[in-house]
Amino acid sequence: MAAGCDYIQIEEPLTPSHAAEDRTAANMVDLINKIVDGITGCTFVVHICFGSFRRPPYPETPEDIIERVRTCLEYRDAERLEISTDCGLRRVPRYLAISKMSAAEAARRLRATG
Length: 114
What we know:
Layout: E1 7-11, H1 25-36, E2 43-47, H2 62-72, H3 94-99, H4 103-113
Parallel strand pairs: 1-2
Helix pairs in contact: 2-4
């Protein structure tokens, strides 16, 4: 892009505190596609929140992440999907934030099993 940006994170269009009945996965894909339509030369990522509004704070397991990634793969090719730690890290005790960083294990398992 002209300003030199080559990696853009889009905040999720659906949050637990603002959910609406029409916010289905298919509608969210359509919305995100409209957001990025016509923009080239950069990588887009979508931040999908799990942890910020969860009570009590819950460390998602590799199995949780694998399930969500498999759902994402219904809409995105594997080579175009990136995973990272889930959010909610700033609102939880340090021990819990560390335990939430199971994305690497989930990625390892996904690569091994397909």
